Amino acid sequence: MPEYKPLLTFLADLTPWAAIAILVLAIIAGYKNGFRKAAISSSAPVTKPGKWAWIAVVVLWVVVMLNYFDRSLLSVLNKPMTEGPDSIAMTQEQFGKVMAAFLIVYAVLSPVGGYLADRFSRSFIIMCSLVVWSVVTWMTGKSESYEELIIWRAAMGISEAFYIPAALALITDYHRGKTRSLATGLHMSGIYAGSALAGYGASMAGEPWQLGWSLTFEVFGFIGVAYGLIVFFLLRNPKAEEAPVVEETVVAAAPAAPEVSMGQVFKSIFTGSGMYVLLVMIALAGFANWFVLNWYPRLLQDFLATFHTAGQYLDITDEDAAEHSTLWLSIAKYVSVLGCAVLADFWYQRNKNARAYVPGIAFCVAGPCVLLAMMFGVEIGLYAVLALVTMQGVAQGAIDATLMPVLRNTIDERYAATGYGLLNFTSAGVGASVTWVAGLLKDHGVELTTILAMGGVLMVVVGILLFCLPKKKNA
Fold first, then answer.
1. Helix (H), strand (E), coil (C) string for 457-473
2. DSSP summary character for residue 254
3. Alpha helices (runs of H) in 310-353, residue ranges in sequence order
4. pLDDT tens for each residue of 51-65
5. What gap in Å lies between CA 226 and CA 380, rounded to an integer?
6. Which residue from 39, 161, 212, 396 lies 20 to 30 Å from 144 (Cα-Cα)?
7. What's the CA gap between 107 and 112, in Å, rounded?
8. How many other C-beta atoms can be found within 10 angstroms of the C-beta atom of residue 112?
9. How many CB atoms sit inside 10 A of residue 357's CB?
10. pLDDT tens digit sequence for 228-286
């Protein structure tokens, strides 16, 4: 047994008690500062983003990184969880249901999480989400049966459904001018960092750390709750007298949401065509994105067999193909989410519709690239396929950087978190469906390349829809 394992076990066992302590602190602070979301005065002074605006981005970057680390860690530890010496007796179909349980709960509760983030303190909701995330991650490691595991992964959907709408709404409360896309993009880059770092989870569970899959989850549960102290002291809501950033001209900030029902909020959100267009857009974008996330490694492995059949023998293994698929896409998304954020903010100063146009252009370019790769994969070679499909990552990074700014440009800003929750509900719902249907179609002889080619066509439609959003007049 490694010398450090008893210490890590001791720290991990502190997780539930530390979580209770952090939650008590958050409740006390809530009573002191108020649980309601603070109003932002329309007469707030014209200033640039202060230090708390950027501190919020940095603090929440780590939170979203942990969220997505956990999501990817489950799939990374598939083999030790299902076949190792400490494995849980379950089939791969059951393991798939465990992942789907998270997506279903995440989808259903995202609008609820968004609505609460519009009504109550966003920093308090984020704190509660992190505490729940930590305990659920710890309990995942404690699971001893398939039934326990699926319950705790479903519970993880509760935590994350409440986090993303609140976090993005809080960041864009602070950043209301030319830094809005950049701040959003910086935060969302944590998603790709978490997904990439999750690969090291296999090293922690096996060689060289030898922690086992259970203790690996438990340790990250402790890390989450320990980080909660940093969130508690450094994250706060913008105060009514502290104006978010406004650049050249005064842009009045929307007042806090009044005491209205969820039905009234939804009625406001769906006034006009903008939200309908965004929902269709995010559903079609989600088709390609979730397919690539869940099936692209297997698609490339199938491609290798096709190349061999055609007489092209490549010096690359199935494992190498899977690594290439995640590496290229992760790099593309990371670069795109930051680059497109900067470009969108720069162009926005001249054209108030730029934050929709930047991802619109990206999708219009990426769609044909994906379609070309699927139609002529054998003729153009594996590395050309990798390069062309990587454009999907570029497009996804562009929409991740600009979606919340575009949403707040489309609907009443007071209900931005609720609106984002609805978009999350749609995207995750499509993701659960396409993940299941793709496997079903493959079992019935439909090639994965055909499904991704369809995704390429839909990506072009996504680009067109972004150009069809209601236009804002330039100042």
1. HHHHHHHHHHHCCCCCC
2. P
3. 318-348
4. 888 999 999 999 999
5. 50
6. 161
7. 10
8. 17
9. 20
10. 999 999 988 776 544 444 444 444 444 444 566 778 888 889 988 999 999 999 999 99
